[in-house]
Amino acid sequence: MDGWVGAWTGGRRAVHIGNVADFNEQFLPEDERRQPDADRRARRLRQAHHYAGLAVAYGPDPAALVLPAEVDRAWIDLLARELDWGPVESHTGIAPGTTVAEALAARPALAARLAAGPGPVLHWGRTAAHGDGPELAAVRRYESKAAAHELFTALAPGHPGIRVPRQEPADTPRRAARRLAVRAARGLTTVLKSPHGVGGYGTAVVTPAELLAAGGARALLRRLVREDVLPPGGTLLLEEYVDAGQAGSGRLRDLTFDAVIGADGRVHPVGVGEMAVDGTRYQGVTVGPGVVPPGAAAVAERFGLAVGERLAAAGHRGWYDVDFVTDRERRLAPTETNLRLTGPAVAFVLRHRLDEVRGPGHLVRTLDAMPLGARLPQEALFEHLERVRPRCARLGATLLPLIVTAGYEPEPAVGLALAARAAEALDAAQALLGAAHHALGRMFEALR
Predict the structure, then answer these.
(1) Residue 302 contacts residue 309 (beta carbons within 8 Å)
(2) For the chain, how many helices (H) and strands (E)?
(3) 89-92 and 62-67 as β-strands: parallel, antiparallel, unpaired?
(4) Is 142 helix (H, G, I), strand (E, B) or coil?
(5) Contacts of 417-420 spanning 24+ positions with Cβ under 8 A
C-alpha cells in the first residue's frame, strides 16, 4: 500500500492508545515535574484525558482502543457503524487520576498483549515509556518552538511564499518583561511562547493596550502565570505577531500541513487544512477538496515536506505537522511543528476512511470543544446528539462524536466531526448544532 496510510498503518487494523497526558507532561518545566501542584496536575490530566478521546480516529480502522477516561460503549458502536469498523476491543477509564503509561505499567499482561498484536500500536506521541533513542531525541528537540524556529529560518530562503516571524529568547521573567515593554512602546503586538508549551498552555498574544491595562509588563506576566497561561520562571520566546490584514478576514489565516514519516525515513504528505483558532487556542480544522486554495496548499506542502526531511534525518518517525499563519501579502509564516498526532490528523484520517467506505469527495470539519449549554452525563449527551444526528443528515452532513467525556465539566463541551460533500452542508450543520446546544442551555435554565 502506497502513500501515507501505508506508512502509518500498513493498511492493518491498529491499537489506538490515548496518551495525550503522557506526551504533554514530559515538556512541563523541570521544577513542576519534580514537585507538581496537585490541583494543577489533576486539572491538566483531566483536560488531556478528555482530548485523548480523539484516539478513536488515530487510524482508519481500530482493532483496540485504550482511553484514560471512561467512555460508554454506545459511542464506539455508533462510530463503528458509521465508519464500517470491524470489532473493536475497548479498554476505557483505565487512568482517571494518572497517566496511561502508569496505568498500563500496573497492568503488564494487558500492555504486553496489546503490544504483541498483528497490527501497529498508535500513540498520540512518543514518550520515554517507548524507550530512548533518536526518535525520542528528535521529538524533544523539535517540539521546542525555539528549535523549530531555527529550522524554519534555515529552510525559508529556498521557499518563495514563506516568511519566518522574528523571534528572540528571554531567559528570565525580568528580561522578558523589559523586552516586552520596549516592544509595546514601539506599538508592537507580541506573541509570548513557552519553548515547550503544549495543549494550549504556554502561548499568549499581548497587545500594547493589554499591557497598559495590566499595569505594565511585569504585572502582566505575573497575571499570566497566576492564570496558568504561562509557566512560572524559565525562558520565554518573544515572537513577532504576524498581522493578516485583509487576508485574515476570510480564509487562509491559520493553515496546517500534516505528513507521515515512514519507517524507512521517507516523507509522505497527508494534506493541508484550514484551522479554526480562537486567540491562541486551536478549535478544529476543515479538510478536503477545495478547502485551501491550490497556491497556498502548494506552498505549505513544499515547505512542510522540507521540514519533514530534516525531522526524518534527525530520527523522527511517524506523524508530524507544520502550522502556519498568513500575513498581509498572503505569505505563509510557519509558527511551530508538532512531532506527534494532531487534532487535524483526526480529520484527515476520518476523511480517508469515509472516502474509502462511502466513495471519494468528503469534506471533514472537526469541532474539538463545542460548548453544550448544559452539563450532561454521557447517557444524556448521547440521547441529545441522537436527536440532532438525523437533522444533520437531512442537511447532507454526517455527525461523528469524538470527545464525549467533557459534558459534565463546569464548562461543558463536546468534540465532534462533521462530514459532507459540500462546504455549505458543513456550515449548515455546524449552525444547527450551535442552535441545538443553545436551546439545551435555555431549557435547563428554565427548569432551575
Answers:
(1) no
(2) 16, 16
(3) parallel
(4) helix
(5) 417/57, 417/346, 417/347, 417/350, 417/364, 417/365, 417/366, 417/367, 418/364, 418/365, 418/366, 418/367, 418/392, 419/350, 419/351, 419/354, 419/362, 419/363, 419/364, 419/365, 420/362, 420/363, 420/395, 420/396
> Is the entire prediction scored with pTM above 0.70?
yes
Continuous H helices in 169-243? 173-185, 208-214, 217-226
Q: pLDDT digit string (tens) for 20-53? A: 999 998 887 665 665 667 787 888 899 999 999 9
Calculate the CA dihedral of residues 296, 247, 203, 324 and round it to 10 degrees.
Answer: 10
The 8 Å CB, 24+ separation contacts for 34-43 are 40/228, 42/97
Extract the C-alpha cell encoding 259. 505528513
Among residues 203, 196, 323, the alpha carbon closest in space to that of 259 is found at 323
Cα–Cα–Cα angle for 401, 404, 408, rounded to 5 degrees: 145
Compute the Cα dihedral for 137, 198, 154, 308 and give only its sign. positive
